[in-house]
Structures are given as structure tokens and as C-alpha cells.
């Protein structure tokens, strides 16, 4: 009969301690991998949430802008003043029936000053309303970036070395309208001057485009057709909304 040494009954793990070490290492690596995957998923979810928040904020601002423009058009219509809106709901066109400039002039005709006054007052009221019932302490204009008062001219050359031709004339038309609104202390439009955008800068700005942006119906006016040319001697009001800055987007990307 073969004799067996009882001390030789050690387990396989005791005979091969390296196998236990390898198993422990693999288990640890699996845990680390799972934790890294969970952290990555959380990071991606956070980025996605941040992007969704930015998209929602822009959509909200654009919705408010449309409300502002629609209300201005309707309220002025009730006052028998015509103001048109662009197809994309970003620009208000003041047609020659509501405000027209004489050729080569930036003066607001006395007969149309009441129209301009009412447009400014209605603009102020629409911008200053609460965003919605949940944001009663926050005015609509805080969702905007800039409101541009844009001046335009016809393509008849304006000879004035000081104003630099039609470019200067168009800018002066925009300035005339802005000053008319902002410098009358007895009108609601005077409050436009105090409005600040979402980063605390002045909300309103003026710009001039010369004859570079004619109305579609007045792109090919005959030289002496003043009725056609008058359609381009106009003021537009362009409203832009706040959007995420490059810095904000880079911060989301880097997180």
C-alpha cells in the first residue's frame, strides 16, 4: 500500500499563489473600468444637459422676440399706423406710409412725427413687459442682445463730404429717430435709453446701410420715380436675441 504524506494535500491556491494574485488584479481592473465608464457616462450626460439648456434658452428668447414683434404690429395697427414684419420675425419695417424722408434729408417730417412717437412708445411697452407669468420681475428685453435702428437710403447719390454720402445719410436717419424717442422726457419711449441687455450693455444701437439693402419691390426704380425711391428711404428695427458665447460653449466642451 502506497503511503501518502498528509502535508501534500495543500490546495491548488496554496500550490500556485500567483493565480490568486492574477484573479485579484483582474477583478480590480474590472472595477476600475466600470467606474471609469460610469464617470464618462455622467460627464456626457452633464454635457448633454448643458447643451439642452442653452438650446432651450435660445428658443425661449426667439419665442419672446416673436411675441414682441407681433404685439407691436397689432397694437400699431389699432392706432392706424402700419408697420410690417419680416418673414423670419426678426425685423420691423416702417414703410413710407408711416415714415418717409425727403430725398437727401434725415429730418422727420412734422406731419409724421406723431407716427414715430407712437412707434417708440409701443416699442417700449412691448419690450418692458414681463417675460411670462412665472417671470413677473424680469422684463422681456433682458433676453435680447441688441435692438438696431437701421437707416436706409435710395440709390440717388447724396453729395455731402461731411456725411460721406449715402452711408452717412442713412446713419443720420437712424440717429434722428433714436434721438426723437430717447430725448423726449414726456414720452414712454424715453425709457428706451435706460434699457440694458443681458450683459448690462446698452440695448439700443444705430446703424446705416446706405443704398445696399433696398426693399424687394423697389430694387429697380427708374431714375425719376420718386414714389419707388421713397420706399428705400426708410427705417428698420432689427431685434437680436442673446445666444451662448464662444467661451460658454468652450466651457461645456471642456467639461
Automatic annotation (TrEMBL):
Keyword Nuclease: no
Sequence intervals crossing the membrane: 20-42
InterPro entries reported in the protein's UniProt record: Bact_OuterMem_StrucFunc, OmpA-like, OmpA-like_sf
SUPFAM superfamilies, per database record: OmpA-like (SSF103088)
Cellular component, GO annotation: membrane
Keywords: Membrane, Transmembrane, Transmembrane helix
PROSITE patterns the record matches: OMPA_2
Transmembrane keyword on record: yes
Domain OmpA-like, residue spans: 88-243
Top-level taxon: Bacteria
Family matches, as Gene3D superfamilies: OmpA-like domain
The protein, known as: Chemotaxis protein MotB
Native source organism of the sequence: Haemophilus parahaemolyticus
Amino acid at each position: 500500500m502506497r503511503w501518502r504524506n498528509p502535508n501534500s494535500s495543500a490546495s491548488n491556491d496554496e500550490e500556485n499563489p500567483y493565480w490568486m494574485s492574477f484573479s485579484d488584479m483582474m477583478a480590480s481592473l474590472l472595477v476600475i473600468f466600470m467606474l471609469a465608464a460610469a464617470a464618462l457616462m455622467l460627464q456626457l450626460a452633464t454635457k448633454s444637459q448643458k447643451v439642452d439648456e442653452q438650446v432651450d434658452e435660445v428658443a425661449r428668447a426667439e419665442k419672446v422676440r416673436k411675441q414682441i414683434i407681433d404685439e407691436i404690429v397689432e397694437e400699431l395697427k389699432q392706432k392706424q399706423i402700419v408697420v410690417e414684419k419680416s418673414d423670419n420675425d426678426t425685423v420691423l419695417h416702417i414703410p413710407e406710409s408711416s415714415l418717409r424722408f425727403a430725398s437727401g434729408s434725415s429730418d422727420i417730417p412734422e406731419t409724421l412725427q406723431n407716427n414715430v412717437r407712437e412707434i417708440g412708445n409701443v416699442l417700449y411697452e412691448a419690450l418692458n413687459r414681463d417675460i411670462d407669468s412665472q417671470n413677473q420681475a424680469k422684463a422681456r428685453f433682458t433676453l435680447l442682445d441688441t435692438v438696431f435702428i437701421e437707416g436706409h437710403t435710395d440709390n440717388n447719390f447724396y453729395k455731402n463730404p461731411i456725411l460721406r454720402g449715402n452711408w452717412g445719410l442713412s446713419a443720420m436717419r437712424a440717429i434722428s429717430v433714436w434721438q426723437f424717442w430717447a430725448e423726449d422726457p414726456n414720452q414712454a419711449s424715453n425709457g428706451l435709453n435706460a434699457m440694458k441687455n443681458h450683459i448690462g450693455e446698452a440695448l439700443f444701437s444705430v446703424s446705416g446701410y446706405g443704398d445696399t439693402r433696398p426693399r424687394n419691390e423697389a430694387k429697380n426704380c427708374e431714375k425719376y420715380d420718386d414714389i419707388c425711391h421713397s420706399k428705400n428711404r426708410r427705417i428698420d428695427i432689427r431685434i437680436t436675441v442673446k445666444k451662448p458665447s464662444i467661451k460658454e460653449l468652450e466651457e461645456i466642451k471642456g467639461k
